[in-house]
Amino acid sequence: MQTITVIIPVYNEYCSIKYNLPFIISEACKVKDIKFCFLLIDDGSTDKTATWISEYCEQRDNIELLCLSRNFGKEAAIHAGLDHARGNAVIIMDSDLQHPPVLIPKMVKLWRQGIDVVEACKSSRGRETFSNRLLATGFYRIFNLLVGMDIKNRSDYKLLDRKIVDIYCSLPERKRFFRGLIGWMGFSSAQVFFDVPVRQHGISAWSRIKLMRFSMTALTSFSSTPLHLITGLGISCFALSLVIGGIALYDKYSGQAVSGFTTVILLILLIGSLIMFGLGLIGVYIEQVFDEIKQRPTYLVDQEKSHIREDS
């Protein structure tokens, strides 16, 4: 019998996990002739999430808990889950039911037909604020423009064949963008669509600042185009200086009054702003390189809190 591991990253989900996890398990187990294992990745929760899951693991033999030593972020939690997942395929999904478990039978059916990657895509974004919707749209457009990869409305809710999991885990980089890397790999893929349901319990752990940092990491880890933009800005400023210099020389030799300090001050401010922008952008890439060359692990596991069955 084939086995599928369902990876569920959790972070301070105590208020919701005790309701949502049994429902996720019941929906997945409706698929016939498939053995499901559920691997929950606790990303350094500070509430009772890990304690409740650990107690629940004692009641069922198909649930495991992997506790990270601190909060490393969702990308690291997904990586940890994929490193420890067993079976013929893996499903990655959120615990808040905004990734509907009812899609699992359809995703498994497509995988059985030979599809390597089955992606769940959002046909609508649910009750999202206008500002978040605007930021998401802007990010997807910029990512598509710079990288040439359309990931609009794709989510982390995916089914991956074993060979995709093995390839993903073998990639050397530490700063990862899961959705982008899966799309970059290629291989056969199919999509299923869903409307994002309203979150019934708890609140999202994603703050605006976290989303902005995540977006910046995603863009800089996939494209060097912003660095080339700095060169373009430099060339543009040089061309502008030639034009203004030519005008100034013409005014001087024609006996006309040379412009005052206003133009000079504005140009200095403009060029200074462009230089600071360029330095900041270069700094982001240097940060990426700095994090990579340190070669620190993407995550650390707290073995004492984890509940992993070695014989499964």
TrEMBL record:
Primary location group: membrane
Keyword annotations: Glycosyltransferase, Membrane, Transferase, Transmembrane, Transmembrane helix
GO-annotated cellular components: plasma membrane
Membrane topology: Multi-pass membrane protein
The Glycosyltransferase 2-like domain, residue ranges: 5-135
Keyword Transferase belongs to the record: yes
Subcellular location: Membrane
SUPFAM superfamilies: Nucleotide-diphospho-sugar transferases (SSF53448)
Transmembrane segment boundaries: 219-249, 261-286
One function term, GO molecular function aspect: glycosyltransferase activity
Matching InterPro entries: Glyco_trans_2-like (IPR001173), Glycosyltransferase_2 (IPR050256), Nucleotide-diphossugar_trans (IPR029044)
Protein name: Glycosyltransferase 2-like domain-containing protein
Originating species: hydrothermal vent metagenome
